[in-house]
Amino acid sequence: MSPGFYPEWFPVYDPRAFGQVPATFGVGAPKFASTIVLSLAHLTSWSAERIARAAAQKCPEHNAILAEEVWDFYMAWVEHLPRCRSRLEDMEESMWEILQQFEFGISGPNTEGRNLANTPRPTTFTYARLWLPTERYSGPEIPSFLPEDGVDNYRACMTLAANGPLTCFTPAELKIIEQLGTPVRPMIRTVMNECMEYLERDMMGGEFNRKIFDLHRHLGKIMQLGNRVVELWCYMFGSVEDFADSWNVTVRRDDESEYDEQVDEVISQLKDQVEISKRRLLKNAVAKRQGRCLVYLNSSPQAIKMLVICMVTDRIHALDELRNKRRQETGATLVNAEDIPRDSRDCPICRETLGVQNEQGDTECPVRLVSCCGQYAGERCLQEWYRSPQGLSCPLCRRTPSSSFFEKLYHVEFPFSSSATVTFLVHAEVTDPTRAEISDEQFQALGEGRDVSVMIGEDMLTVRQETASNRAIPHLD
């Protein structure tokens, strides 16, 4: 008998039993798609989404099959399974013949393990097959966000970073998560809990002056967390294609003449996974996005994975921004000589050993430059460096320190706005904590880019306010 028609598989059609089964499957008059769907659903551990995709490839006339339709159709069929074991075995034998004939590449029937009957009803959502991480706030397709949610989501992440808990979802994220179906939300919550536990261990083990988002240290872990949500999804809904939960492609336009070759190389990687016609469309899509990263998503769990990665990195960047603010407010800290790493025990400015008395009887107190590079230097050497004409930036990393750094270094408090970063050109020794006075006219002169002389006791201090662009430099790391 033709593998496309097995009337003994189907009972007399009862609308009350089958509910709203899609007409495309032809319950009353089964077609190829019906037998393929039932065979895959019954004898494999595939997800309904993967079954729908496979059936559409074998039966192009049914290319609009949804995962929900596959699940509904199979569950309605399960309710009418024959109670006679021998008859069921005959049906399973016929199903296996179909899978072999259509060459699905399955090694053997899965009659003892989980199949589609053990999974919850899936939810189909629209995800971006070609996704640009640099244009996250571009549209409603997951894993992107709506453009109007961009600023609000950034502020919400900053609030979570400041007040916690970081495992909470922002309103923009909830908007997307609600589209994924009820079972998916706990998966994302589980992964976010694992992520925050990892970050807390990292933050407790390190110092706040170090950036959290270290590409070499944490990118691998972030990708593992993304794969973790795919693993949870497949455990609940069934498997997806092996390449779909890890495959992506990056195209960068570094040179005009080499760009076409890069695109061709990218497309060639798809030869076993995408039809020729779709590869052409993909090539055109890549060509329109010159010089940008492109991710090819082939399944909904892959889209969820990218969404989770975005949520994790948003929180890491928010934490880093708060930690950077704390670094700027702290400026520099005195440390014990015993706590200095072995390769940093000599002052990089004078080359004397930090914390050890020299021949003149002076001791160079070690200072940690937490507002910029995090390196160690002598307190006296730093004070002398910033009094010199070339002392407009850190002697080690060349970044311009914040005003709070100078307040702590010279024990002087200035009543400037916290947003006004200033560069100090000190011409006299200042040792006692003293409050510097500055008039409104002097403050206006600073805003116009002019130097201002400020009296501190009997000493004169020249102050220069930086431009906005220079103030931004320390934050662009």
Protein structure class: mainly alpha
How is the main sheet built?
Answer: 3 strands, antiparallel
β content, as a range? Answer: 5-15%
Strand arrangement across the biggest beta sheet: 3-4-5
Number of domains: 3
**Which residues form runs of ≥5 with pLDDT under 50?**
1-7, 10-30, 244-249, 251-257, 412-434, 467-477
Number of strands: 10
Give the % helix.
40-55%
- Treating each run of at least 4 consecutive H or I residues as one helix, how many helices? 16
Mean pLDDT rating:
72
Order of SSEs = HHHHHEHHHHHHEHEEEHHEEEHEEH
| CA-CA gap between termini | 69 Å
| Shape field | elongated
Verbal overview:
The protein has helices at residues 15-18, 32-43, 48-58, 67-78, 85-101, 150-163, 171-177, 184-205, 215-237, 259-268, 276-287, 300-330, 379-387, 403-410, 440-447, 468-472; strands at residues 130-131, 295-296, 333-334, 366-368, 376-378, 412-413, 422-426, 434-435, 452-456, 459-465. The chain starts with 14 loop residues before the first helix and ends in a 5-residue tail after the last helix. Mean pLDDT is 72; it is low at 1-7, 10-30, 244-249, 251-257, 412-434 and 467-477. The chain is elongated, with a radius of gyration of 32 Å. The chain is mainly alpha-helical and 477 residues long. It is 43% helix and 7% strand. The strands form four sheets. It has a three-stranded antiparallel beta sheet with strand order 3-4-5. The protein has three domains: 7-118, no CATH class; 130-250 and 293-327, no CATH class; 329-475, no CATH class. Helix 8 (184-205) runs parallel beside helix 12 (300-330). The protein has 16 helices and ten strands.
